[in-house]
Amino acid sequence: MSFQDKIQSAALRNQTRTVLALDLEDPDASQLVKRSREVLARVKDCICAVKVNRQLVLGLGLQRVADSILKPASDLSLPTIMDAKLNDVGHTNEFMARTYFDAGFDAVIASPTAGWKNGLDSVFETARSRNRGVLLLTYMSNPGAETFYALTAKEEDGAEKPVFEIMTRLALEWGAQGVVVGATKPHIISRVRQLVGPIMPIYSPGVGAQGGKPSEAVEAGATYLIVGRTIYAAPDPRAAALSIRTPPNPLGV
Predict the structure, then answer these.
(1) Would strands 133-139 and 160-162 be described as parallel, antiparallel, or unpaired?
(2) How does strand 133-139 pair with strand 152-154?
(3) Contact assessment for residue 231 and residue 203, using Cβ atoms and an 8 Å cutoff
(4) Is 71 a catalytic residue?
């Protein structure tokens, strides 16, 4: 089953668009594992996927993440995403993508800034060979993102467009399984939805702690909402997850 099929199936089964971002930090690795597993157990039927950032990988090590997070998520039929933001040269990107996929991740997030040739070509090839997904970051959720993503640049034909629009075109051209656009920018989500059409998933981080509103992101065209601190830092993670749960439509978008 492909990554897209897995997340769509989980979204419809649990009637939610929420991707849990397990980005916890703790100098005590045992406590980090314990807390991460507790949160996952509490919200397992309120989410459709689990995203892991580098905080958890650096805090625990990849093998421990695989054993303590990826395997339980897989047992729950929840796909996992590595928020690697890959943007290095080809052989380095290929090594990182292969390592994450072999550890058990179903998809990785990459940055189009690396380009295709000897950049992300190896990531997509590695993903295809393992039937995994690649999501491309086209607009971050933090306030400073506008400094780069809203810049105007020239296309090959000389036409000037915002950088995020060029990145969105590349996501379509390269065959990405989705794009990442901050929930804090509903107008950008709306524009990206116009560019990618009705089918390609849009993943929107920044809900809650960064100020993004679930309803506004979904109305603008977001398919999935990536939520971290609002859930795992809440006194009751399950109640927090339920409070932002937005059912998908029958097509999972």
Answers:
(1) unpaired
(2) unpaired
(3) no
(4) no
Closest listed residue to residue 81, CA positions, set 212, 9, 13, 178: 178
* pTM to 2 decimal places: 0.95
Domain boundaries, the chain: 3-243
Active-site residue among 34, 85, 117, 213? 85
Do β-strands 18-22 and 49-52 pair in parallel, antiparallel, or remain unpaired? parallel
pLDDT at position 129: 96
Measured in degrees and rounded to the nearest 5, phi and psi for residue 198 equal -80, -15
Burial of 35: CB neighbours in 10 Å, binned 0-12, 13-18, 19+: middle
Residue pLDDT, tens place only, 185-217: 999 999 999 999 999 999 999 888 787 899 999
Domain 3-243 sits in CATH at 3.20.20.70
The number of beta carbons lying within 10 Å of the beta carbon of residue 161 is 15
Asked if the model's pLDDT at residue 94 lies above 90, the reply is yes
| Nearest to 216, CA basis, from 244, 179, 252, 177 | 244
| Class of residue 166 by CB neighbours under 10 A (exposed 0-12, middle 13-18, buried 19+) | buried
